[in-house]
Write a structure and sequence with these properties.
By secondary structure, this protein is an alpha+beta fold. The protein is built from 19 helices and 13 strands.
Length: 496
């Protein structure tokens, strides 16, 4: 008993029922060298007039005062840098985390406000990205002497089992339309009893998504052969997503993210997102995106073999941008790997036929002559065709080894003559100094991709659709650039 009295007298226990008022000096919530101060400093340097104009346009309307765009931009950039991409999570952190509280001045930002801000005003977001590039360029962090370009596939907010053919989508759409019709013909009183506003909105969104799915399906079918059109499928969850091959060899609904990185300090100078599964068509748009962002082309663009095509080599030639790539193995004009399928044995494949330049003829391993029979002009090259005499092939003892699948016409050979620009490009890629430049590509071009996936955790999009996915990528890339600037240039102000 005595011990208990001593405890009661000498020990102050926690009283969780009392009300405590505590003064907080907001600026002391974070250290002087905290990265959130750097983010705030950078955002304050930006021209945000488009955002303020949109706020002014709403003046006089009912509701709470608008949140300062500087606050919202800083919140999203800081959140992305910590791998946080959910608006609800940011709202929670504004109540609990000192860095978030420092940005907001202890105000709690509603997650609806955060979510809407992230996806609206794409034009303003593009300007933020280019303005930051202008600042970094002014500080000497961007030179455009050499840009390393790479593409990466990021999974869409959809799974493979959401892909359906046209007939199935039509059935789902008819059902959704019927649900919408029932809701629109039901009185408000009945509606409040039978269905919530959230469900009503969800059904309408489903209908809209299915209608979009059919539109996207028509685009896909337009690029397919007639016999393949019936098999065309599209996602009912994210119709704009496309099935793409992943780095692990598997396939998944994805978007193709293209990132151009200045080699000097690994600053992202261009970013695009597309539905193309291959990179062939992405090189020229990437070059143009850099000019759009910075006002000039890079002196060099370094890419892997996946971007190289005759079209791209010719298109880049004469632009003032030197194209450098890894080796790309070119198949035979007739299609390498196809000879075995046609029953042609190695001893009778094109490399076994001798070319007589003086007479412009070929001779086969059986010493029969194949004469010039015509040419086909293609982009970056010309195909010259040489045909054997039908009688020579018909009575040849090696016919079953040479042209078993062509009993009527006999054997033909195609000689490809590359354009001078193509030949010059391939010869240049063989030079040791060019190979040395290309070896640097992986360390530069793949670094931002890896950073965005590991630090920002953008291995799968959280938003649906090409446009919204593009916005998400843009937020990630400008966050990356600011983090690079903090690492390379930012110096905290000395506390006085």
């Amino acid at each position: 008993m005595a011990d208990q009295q001593f405890m009661d007298r000498r020990i102050k226990q926690a009283d969780r029922k009392q009300m405590v008022l505590k003064s907080v000096e907001v600026d002391k919530l974070v250290e002087e060298d905290h990265e959130v101060r750097a983010i705030w400093e950078m955002v304050k340097r930006l021209d945000l007039s488009s955002y303020y104009e949109s706020i002014r346009a709403m003046e006089g309307s009912a509701g709470r005062s608008a949140t300062d765009p500087v606050v919202l931009i800083s919140l999203w950039i800081y959140a992305y840098s910590k791998g946080v991409s959910a608006a609800r999570e940011i709202e929670r952190l504004c109540e609990q985390d000192s860095a978030y509280q420092w940005i907001t001045g202890l105000e709690v930002i509603n997650y609806h406000t955060l979510s809407d801000f992230r996806i609206k005003n794409q034009e303003g977001l593009n300007k933020i990205f280019t303005d930051i590039l202008g600042i970094l360029s002014g500080e000497g962090l961007i030179t455009l002497e050499r840009v390393m370009h790479d593409g990466t596939k990021i999974k869409a907010y959809a799974s493979g089992d959401t892909f359906r053919r046209e007939e199935r989508i039509q059935k789902h759409l008819e059902a959704a339309r019927e649900q919408v019709r029932i809701m629109e013909t039901t009185s408000e009183d009945e509606m409040s009893q039978r269905i919530s506003k959230a469900k009503k909105r969800a059904i309408k969104e489903k209908k809209k998504s299915l209608e979009q799915a059919l539109e996207e399906l028509e685009k896909i079918k337009g690029n397919k052969k007639e016999k393949e059109k019936k098999e065309a499928r599209v996602s009912m969850t994210d119709p704009e997503a496309r099935i793409m091959k992943q780095s692990d060899g598997g396939y998944a609904p994805s978007f193709n993210v293209q990132i151009s990185t200045d080699a000097k300090e690994k600053i992202i100078v261009g970013v695009r997102i597309s539905q193309n599964g291959s990179d062939y068509g992405e090189l020229i748009p990437a070059k143009e995106k850099i000019e759009e962002n910075i006002g000039e082309f890079p002196k060099q663009m370094v890419v892997d073999g996946g971007f190289i095509s005759r079209e791209n080599i010719l298109a880049m030639n004469g632009t003032g941008v030197e194209l450098i790539s890894g080796e790309k193995k070119e198949g035979n004009a007739q299609g390498k790997g196809q000879f075995e399928k046609r029953g042609i044995v190695p001893a009778f494949q094109p490399e076994a036929f001798g070319y007589d330049k003086e007479n412009n003829t070929y001779s086969c391993p059986e010493e029969k002559v194949l004469k010039y029979s015509g040419k086909e002009n293609r982009v970056g090259h010309i195909n010259y065709e040489y045909s054997a005499n039908i009688n020579d092939c018909q009575f040849c003892l090696s016919k079953e080894k040479c042209c078993p699948a062509n009993p009527v016409k006999g054997r033909t050979i195609t000689r490809r003559e590359e354009a001078a620009e193509i030949v010059a490009f391939r010869e240049k890629m063989k030079r040791e100094e060019i190979k040395a430049i290309y070896k640097q590509r992986g360390a530069v071009a793949e670094f931002p991709n890896a950073w965005i996936k590991s630090k920002i955790k953008l291995r799968q999009f959280r938003l649906k659709g090409l446009k919204k996915a593009g916005i998400e990528v843009l937020w990630a890339c400008l966050t990356y650039n600011i983090q690079q600037w903090i690492r390379l240039s930012w110096k905290p102000k000395c506390a006085c």
